[in-house]
Amino acid sequence: MTNNNQKADQPLFGRPWIFIRGVPAMKFLPPEGPLEVAFAGRSNVGKSSLINALVGQKALARTSNTPGRTQELNYFVPDGYSGAADDMPPMALVDMPGYGYAQAPKEQVDAWTRLVFDYLRGRATLKRVYVLIDSRHGIKKNDDEVLSLLDKAAISYQIVLTKTDKIKEAGVPRLIAETLEKIKKHPAAFPEVLSTSSEKGNGLDELRAAIAETVGRKS
To answer: How far apart are CA 213 and CA 132, in angstroms?
Structure first.
């Protein structure tokens, strides 16, 4: 049987992960316990694909050809923990509802938006938000609005470029430099931009290491 010390020595991403809860409203949030890192981004930025690639599981987070399918805060944790006070997972990944597009009534979209904002403002265990930006488009107006919201909430966040396999390789360093310049005015932005490709696996080890460092664990 694996004891707690052995569990603590295991790397975060060298084990299976499981989905534990979809949260449609704040009252359904799990009790605050493990540190949390959340993923935010436009609805078609590739959040679910990146989460699946990070943990090495094809169907942990649901992917869809229809943007806006993630309508709740979806919680994922490493498997093998009972959830009791002395047997909590080392951390949780939170897949946030995509912004900027949703095939749903405005009232429902507004409800998701309030949920996200309330979560950002009121979750003491939230350590960092990784804001995903499609490398083909860069930071757009609605991205910038979300960054400003995170600044106001004083939530640490880091930009992660996605789908870098879709642009020319030589363009990636230039895009990173341009993105760094744009986030200089944002006080809560972590001053390093990561670039990834879920399809090719580029940058995943760097992102895993960044997450592990954020929560004080081994990647």
So the answer is: 19
- 92 Cβ contact partners less than 8 Å away, ≥ 6 residues apart: 20, 30, 34, 35, 36, 37, 75, 76, 77
> 11-15, 24-28, 61-65, 162-166: which has the minimum mean pLDDT?
61-65
Q: Which amino acid is at 217?
A: R
Under DSSP, the state recorded for 87 is S
Tokens of 53: 């690639």
Q: Is the pLDDT of residue 80 over 80?
A: yes
Amino acid at 141: K
Q: CA nearest 182: which of 117, 116, 137, 216? A: 137
Provide the token pair at 63.
Answer: 């992917």
**Cα–Cα distance, 85 to 51 (Å, whole number):** 26
- Token digits for 97? 């509802």
| SS3 letters across 89-147 | CCEEEEECCCECCCCCCHHHHHHHHHHHHHHHHHCCCEEEEEEEEECCCCCCHHHHHHH
Tokens 């009121």 appear where?
Answer: 122
Most distant CA atoms of the chain, gap in Å: 51
Residue 2 — very low, low, confident or very high, per pLDDT cuts 50/70/90?
low
**Tens of pLDDT along 46-66?**
999 999 999 999 889 876 555
